[in-house]
Amino acid sequence: MLKSLAEKNCYFVYDEKTPSGVIHIGSGRGWIIHDVIAKALRDKGKNARFVLSNDDIDPFDKMNKDLPEEYEKYLGMPFMDMPSPDPNYKTFAEKYFMDCVKKFEEFGIECDIESTGEEYKKGTFNETIRTALDNAEKIKQIYIDLYGADTVGANRFPFNPICENCGRIGTTNVTRWLPEEEMVEYECLPDFVDWARGCGHKGKRSPYNGGGKFPWKVEWAAKWPSKGVIVELAGKDHFTKGGSRTCACRISVDVFKYPPPYPSKGYRTGKGYEFFQIGGKKMSTSKGRGVAFVDITEYAPAQMLRYLLVKSRPHAVVDFDPFGTNDLILLYDRYDRTERIFYNVGIEELNEKEIAMQKRIYELSHVGPIPKKMPTQVAFTHCATVIQIALTEENAIELLKQSEHVPKNATEDELEYVKERLRFAKKWVEKYAPDQYRFQLQSEVPVGIVLDAKQKKALKQISVSLKAKKYKEIQELHDEFYNIARYVDLEPAELFKAAYLVLIKKEKGPQLANFILTIGQEKVAELFEKV
Question: Which CATH number fits domain 453-529: 1.10.10.350, 1.20.1560.10, 1.10.510.10, 3.40.50.300?
């Protein structure tokens, strides 16, 4: 039935988010998954669109640490009716939701944005509101079956009116449904919930055209037939046994007579996607914990994060820790490998299935038009090394050209690709990189370092070799270090230690041969000659 509906209308891919505060990167996983599904369907020639709805009519039910105390007076009101803490936005809901939407182009997310509150006002849910109120006892029984007779939904009408006196929606209770008049009688109770106080008003109003909203689990089910949803995933916490998806599927089938969207089938919920964790911590909007979606590009470029989420199976936890780890290096390295496979570089040892999978990952994770020619690749760790040697972006590009990591005739577009990586490498080194990747290049032999006679002899011999021959291959120079170590009867590890102490005043550092060729043979030769 879902397939026939989709072919008749469109493959409607849907997601939604309550703007209760700063929205964290965990929500971004769902947005990218839905975007990828819609793109994949369009690639198959299907009429597919991804719609993301701002659940701005939900009630404000908890103060978060970023808000001034004066916001306590808005508890129980719809987010769309609250003032924004930021003067650049009209409402609370708009601020936190649209902050994220502004980043979508950076992440390559293509979707239509809707307001759930406006959809209520337009009458999109009028038919399902009527159906739900007519079948209130059936919905109550579903709650009883799933959660017991004492649960909230088992004893209430499946609708929350907006109080016409105080504007709250979280404190109202329908006392009677009048189907002939198509009106609900309600009261706004001071003690209905423990997080907001109602005004005590009793009234009667139409539930239609923005007069109120469904409670969450009923609303989820009502959205599917009201909008014609074919695909809607959510985090795995919604898909636990007896969770909100279980309840929504029951209501969708038994009350609205609509097949729940993929990955559900009838009463069977299917599986939700796993969490996106930063350093092992689940993202949470309401608890004010974790990295905000709007801030995540401070720690990793949007395209790298999109790649990370596209290549990860939805049912696998994604744990990314940019703080003092190698995670970002590994992410860049894996992206570069996928990019090379897409352009058929180094695929000889791979089977057809792996090649096809990596090419598809690249297509779905790439932001913007895919270049006809493979971009110039400079390893992220090498960018981090070069930017610390060169200090400026312009000097770094010159060093990369000299070492032939970048073509001397590279176009501006090709150079910009490398410059973006250099910029992020600079930020990473300055703020987040493990200490082993940070250094300061010495212009003179550092005061205070201790070298024995064999170490000094080895460095002077390296100086002679660097002056005598122009090394073009990293491996050739690397082999020369071992030849020199044997010649002076020194353990190779002690040779490398001595070189790093002189170059960066540390016992370890970047791969030495590559490091020296990047700095420049003459410069290193002069320094080693002085030991």
Answer: 1.10.10.350
